[in-house]
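[audit] Reproducing an earlier prediction to check determinism. Same input, same settings, fresh worker. If the tokens differ from the archived copy the diff job will pick it up downstream; this log only records the rerun itself.
[audit] input (207 residues):
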Amino acid sequence: MASKPDRFYFENFVSAAECCCNAAKYLETCLTHYDHREIETMLQKMHAYEHEADAIKHQMSSALAKAFVTPIDREDLAEISQNIDEVADCIEEVLQRFYVDRIEVVTQEAIEFSRQIVVCCNLMRNLLIELNNFKRPQKLHEMIVALNHLEENCDHLYLKATHDIKNYTFNVLTILFWREIYDHLEKCADACEHVGDCVETIVMKNT
């Protein structure tokens, strides 16, 4: 069990991951019930989740700047914090593409992608909850493998989605817009996996 000062770091990660989970769930809601006339309102609410994640990252940066001793190498703590924040950034960027490209109708593949991102974020959060037990890493190993598997599923979904764009349109600009949206959706899953990679590095260094 971590000491009270050490708990701050683990709790900070979980709080930041919760922001990502909330953002992912909101993205799923936006795409499932998409109304292009409400996109600016959607962006404002999504930015609030991203801004909250930023604030939590800044708390971590401030704590690391002042800390004399940390439970894990401060460079690893900073890297995890940055990567969690990147997840929130990537999710916001998906919705920004809908605004910039003036998307009016959502594909079923995009909705399914958003659901998979929710699953990835939830597993990432659970992985960070378990990080407190990094010296007993069996469960962490299992969750890292599961997160890698989810990211691979998203890779397959990305390939299918980009292949199937022409089922919806032959308009070249629209095809390019959707390819970019799918790129951003895939980056969300990649960002979650990067958090898992950081946790795996911590486990290797400390066991």
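[audit] rerun output stored. Observation attached for the diff report: The helical segments are 4-32, 39-66, 74-100, 108-130, 138-163, 172-206.
[audit] end
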